[in-house]
From TrEMBL, chain A:
GO terms for cellular component: ATP-binding cassette (ABC) transporter complex. It comes from the Bacteria. The chain crosses the membrane at residues 20-41, 62-80, 86-105, 184-204. It comes from Thalassospira tepidiphila MCCC 1A03514. The keyword Transmembrane helix applies. Belongs to the binding-protein-dependent transport system permease family. HisMQ subfamily. It is a multi-pass membrane protein. This is Amino acid ABC transporter permease.
TrEMBL record, chain B:
Belongs to the binding-protein-dependent transport system permease family. HisMQ subfamily. Residues 21-209 form the ABC transmembrane type-1 domain. GO terms for molecular function: transmembrane transporter activity. It comes from Thalassospira tepidiphila MCCC 1A03514. The lineage of its organism: Bacteria, Pseudomonadati, Pseudomonadota, Alphaproteobacteria, Rhodospirillales. InterPro entries: AA_ABC_transptr_permease_3TM, ArtM/GltK/GlnP/TcyL/YhdX-like, MetI-like, MetI-like_sf. This is Polar amino acid ABC transporter permease. Pfam families: BPD_transp_1 (PF00528). PROSITE patterns: ABC_TM1 (PS50928). One of its GO terms (cellular component) is ATP-binding cassette (ABC) transporter complex. Keywords: Cell membrane, Membrane, Transmembrane, Transmembrane helix, Transport. It comes from the Bacteria.
UniProtKB/TrEMBL annotation, chain C:
InterPro entries: AAA+_ATPase, ABC_ATPase_HisP-typ, ABC_transporter-like_ATP-bd, ABC_transporter-like_CS, MetN_ABC_transporter-like, P-loop_NTPase. It comes from the Bacteria. This is Amino acid ABC transporter ATP-binding protein. One of its GO terms (molecular function) is ATP binding. Residues 220-242 are annotated as: Disordered. It comes from Thalassospira tepidiphila MCCC 1A03514.
Length: 217, 223, 242
């Protein structure tokens, strides 16, 4: 029926999985940076900026990732920027990631009690010092587990990039299926590979959660 | 040179978008109701003392949570026929959403159950209730109430995620958009408008779930 | 001239007017007890003196300098005025020693050695020389509160504000904290304390301020005020406690 062995399928998928990993890493790092920036301007507290950031978050959390990618992919050419699926996917996923991370981190910063802000203020610290010495060190600890947890969502999100034509794991699966007519095997393998990437991240996030829950400081 | 936006080009095709909204809504409602039902059973199984069942459900949850919805959808629609299970596009989309939400809501509801104070359960035990009665009367409603916001968010995520069902030609909203842009070559305008529609739908869904939550959990207290 | 002067302080939270024109002067070395019913505005008053609440109207003068709500002024104010909270508010990610050292280092830019020396001195003063390397969650409530006092003292404030510093403590831990406060009072520290420990107020304080519905209702020498309240509100407040 087909001249593809299971090994051929797995090998070709593995090659494509590199792009999944690369796209995930890029979007996660860039999205994290943008998210941190948004967190800072938001915590410093100009009401207009706060509203703007909130709108940004709601926009990305209230619309499908696929639409976000489509808008980037079809929108950028309209302002004269011809972009490859790779650039569109990176940009789209970066924005998506930044919105979610900034929201996660906002929760962490807000979970630092008012008392900590007041005590540090009463000791004469300014906003930057409060952030640097009191709030961020504590918020970071709380933030690590959900941040690692969210990385799983980013990896899974990259599958959607296949729809705008970026050849990663899922797209490769479709292409191989078209060549082999063995969708069960191929998509099974694709799923296993995603699982192999995501499950360790999930486990790590859970491990961190347990660890930080027991240590208050 | 400068691109001229033409949102009017969508108007003649509004019926397609309308049908898409309807189908997305149907998918979401069925997926949510059955998916949460599955989640309640899953959470029950996870909390049960039969380790094998608990572990099987655990594997299901981890498998689903650690693979993309799109791949689950492809597996169900393209892969399952190899086992003799042939589904229509709609059936496959609904099944994928149910299976996906079922896994997430199992975890969410389980967290709610674990948050029920042990004293509640002991009190019920002391009143000679059996395990099913305790679950049914003492545990599940407060547990659901506690995690309702998280569950609502997950349902919204599943609704938004259904946009990839266009890839198996399930005729939901994104499918409609794809179809229109193939007719009028106005991809950006179409997706822009459809994004807006999704935003409105997610806001409405969120509000609806909130109202439903109030209804389920506040009124019950007087029964 | 007094160390701290408050003139016609007004403060509202939305519709609710919490401070309705407060005049109060605090002299150097004075120990003032602020008493009154729950919700009468004691905490709010204390917090305005430290700039934690921005006042709507009125004047605050500390050491001859008028305080506006500009950031620079607020930071200057807080260098003069220390605060100890009901809930301790220690920084959980620092040891007792680091809690005390932090602000001298980052705010006053003292060298590490200098900050450490002061911190050790202050921790010894509150009787915690042997707990310096402990994290807050390894300390009892009373010990935590004493660290908080040491932390405020390390900034060498001119005035120390204490808001119900023993209210969150188990009864058997109250005395170790009060002993520290008493010692500070004896050393001549200027103190303003909100307290429900009437016996302590009577013994240690020079001046009693009774707040009622956002105003200073009665004030005077503790001994006299307690034995001979002039207003029915104060006598019912004092009577209610007995
Ligand atoms: N941040 C705030 N926002 C709104 N209302 C507040 C705020 N802080 C205090 N209040 C209100 O102001 C009033 C005075 O509060 P305050 O804390 O000063 O009272 P208190 O005399 O310290 O009472 P207690 O003995 O209970 O500590 C109360 O009615 C309180 O509810
Ligand atoms: Mg108070």
């Amino acid at each position: 029926m087909s001249e593809f062995s299971l090994w051929d399928i797995a090998y070709n998928l593995l090659l494509a999985a590199r792009w999944t990993v690369l796209l995930s890493l890029t979007a996660f790092v860039l999205g994290g940076l943008v998210g941190l920036l948004l967190l800072m301007v938001r915590t410093a507290g100009n009401p207009w900026v706060i509203r703007l950031v909130r709108g940004y978050v709601e926009l990305f959390q209230g619309t499908p990732l696929l639409m976000q990618l489509f808008i980037v992919f079809f929108g950028l050419p309209l302002i004269g920027l011809d972009v490859s699926p790779w650039v569109a996917a990176t940009l789209g996923l970066t924005l998506f990631t930044s919105a979610f991370l900034t929201e996660i981190w906002r929760g962490c910063v807000e979970s630092i009690g008012k008392g900590q802000w007041e005590a540090s203020a009463s000791l004469g610290m300014n906003f930057t010092q409060q952030m640097r010495y009191i709030v961020l060190p504590q918020a970071l600890r709380i933030a690590v587990p959900p941040t690692v947890g969210f990385s799983v969502q980013v990896v899974k999100g990259t599958a959607v990039a296949s729809i705008i034509g970026f050849v990663e794991l899922t797209k490769a699966g479709t292409m191989i299926t078209n060549a082999t007519y063995e969708p069960f095997t191929v998509y099974g393998c694709v799923a296993v590979m995603y699982f192999l990437i995501c499950y360790p991240l999930s486990l790590f996030a859970r491990h961190l959660e347990g660890k930080f829950r027991h240590v208050a400081r | 040179m400068a691109y001229k936006f033409d949102f009017g080009a969508i108007v003649p095709h509004w019926q397609l978008l309308f049908d898409g909204v309807i189908l997305t809504t149907e998918l979401t409602v069925i997926g949510a109701v059955v998916g949460v039902g599955l989640g309640i059973m899953g959470a029950w199984a996870r909390a049960s003392r039969a380790p094998v069942i608990s572990q099987i459900v655990g594997v299901y949850v981890e498998l689903i949570r650690n693979t993309p919805f799109l791949v689950q959808l492809f597996f169900i629609f393209f892969g399952l026929p190899a086992l003799g299970v042939k589904l229509t596009e709609f059936q496959a989309a609904v099944l994928a959403m149910i299976v996906n939400l079922g896994a997430y809501s199992t975890e969410i509801i389980r967290a709610g159950i674990l948050a029920i104070p042990q004293g509640q359960i002991e009190a019920a035990q002391s009143l000679a209730m059996n395990r099913v009665q305790i679950f049914r009367y003492v545990v599940i409603l407060p547990a659901l109430k506690k995690i309702w916001p998280a569950l609502s968010s997950q349902i919204v995520i599943v609704m938004l995620g259904s946009s990839v069902c266009s890839q198996i030609a399930a005729e939901e909203l994104t499918f409609g958009a794809n179809y229109i842009q193939a007719l009028n070559f106005r991809a950006f305008e179409v997706y822009f408008v459809v994004t807006g529609l999704y935003l409105v739908m997610s806001i409405l869904l969120r509000m609806g779930l909130k109202v439903l939550g109030n209804f389920l959990f506040e009124r019950r207290r007087h029964v | 001239m007094s160390l701290v002067e408050l003139h016609a302080i007004h403060k509202s939270f939305g519709e609710l007017e919490v401070l309705k024109g407060i005049d109060l002067s605090i002299d150097e070395g004075q120990v003032i007890a602020l008493i009154g019913k729950s919700g009468s505005g004691k905490s709010t008053l204390l917090r305005t003196i430290n700039g934690l609440e921005v006042i709507d109207d009125g004047v605050i003068i500390v050491d001859g300098k008028k305080i506006s709500d500009r950031d620079a002024d607020l930071l200057g104010l807080r260098l003069q005025v220390g605060m100890v909270f009901q809930q301790f508010n220690l920084f959980p990610h620092y040891t007792a020693l680091e809690n005390v050292m932090l602000s001298p280092q980052v705010v006053k830019k003292q060298s590490k050695a200098e900050a450490k020396q002061i911190a050790e001195e202050m921790l010894a003063k509150v009787g915690l020389a042997d707990k310096m390397m402990h994290y807050p969650d390894q300390l009892s409530g009373g010990q935590q509160q004493r660290v908080a006092i040491a932390r405020a003292l390390a900034m060498k404030p001119k005035v120390l504000l204490c808001d119900e510093v023993t209210s969150a403590l188990d009864p058997e831990l109250v005395n170790e904290v009060l002993a520290v406060v008493r010692q500070l009072a004896e050393e001549g520290m200027t103190l303003v304390m909100v307290t429900h420990e009437m016996r302590f107020a009577r013994e240690v304080c020079d001046k009693l301020v009774f707040m009622h519905q956002g105003r200073i209702h009665e004030t005077g020498d503790p001994e006299e005020v307690f034995s001979n309240p002039k207003t029915p509100e104060l006598s019912s407040f004092v009577g209610g406690l007995a």
